[in-house]
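Possible regression after last week's pipeline update?

I re-ran a chain I had predicted before the update to compare outputs. Posting the input and the new output here so someone can diff against the archived version. Not blocking, just want to make sure nothing changed silently.
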Amino acid sequence: MNLKPIITCAVTGGDDTGFKYESVPVTPEQIASECIAACKAGAAVAHIHVRDPKTGKPSMELALYREVVERIRASGSPVIINLTTGPGARFMPGDDAPNTFAQGSNLQPPAARVRHIVELKPDICSLDMGTLNFGKGTLVNVPKHVEAIAAEIRKAGVKPELEVFDTGHVALSLDMIKRGLLEEKPLFQAVLGVPWGAPATGETMMCFKSLFPHGSPWASFGIGRMEFPMLAQAMVLGGHVRVGLEDNLYLGRGQLAPNNAALVERAVAIVRNLGGEPATPDEARGILGLKRSEEHT
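New output (post-update):
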């Protein structure tokens, strides 16, 4: 049992939910405000994507990331900033010519996917550790590209959060650790319930845990209605947890969450009902080996 779990809040995500749901933040100001509010509600980490303020659709614009990060830092919030490197991997093959790009593809070279990490140097950034069938398309993360992104993350002095959607992704992670391309005890994140990745079950989570290196911090979360059951499962198994509008839009059956803070508050209640207490941002920094907030300039 992890009695001091780190709660991460994934505030907006990379799916096309912007402007479709009022609760999903779109503009940099809204995204930053949701991160700050989530921290006040009990989240130690904010996981961040950005969106086009005009369309609400996912974006990779450096200027948008910069504004979000600067707003959070200027606010004085102690929240740990975790930026995604996931966008730029989606491939939709053409029906008649499978080696062509159909609408919905956004494949980008590794340098473009990690540019905002190099420039802004967040505390943490996600790193998808393998290719995955995703909805009607594919998220392409071949080993060569994963290694290139990992190298830039390391040069920037940022801690990678290794996103594993299937057990083969853990195998690649372990191989990169063995070759010195990743730290010996990295932060793992087991993503459960994404179509068509590992299912959101207790058995799957236990399998992932058994594969992680001994002593490595790890977290897990479930998509949709499995968000809160998987939160409880991760805590019981000794892991850290994640909630947020990226993963789930509902507080309960038919009850849309009004904001990210409401999801965090529900997570805090579950943690306390199980006898734990959420880690504060500074406690989370200690657990993850990050600089303390007072060390940041």
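Follow-up from reviewer: compared with the archived run. The mean pLDDT is 94. Marking as no regression found.
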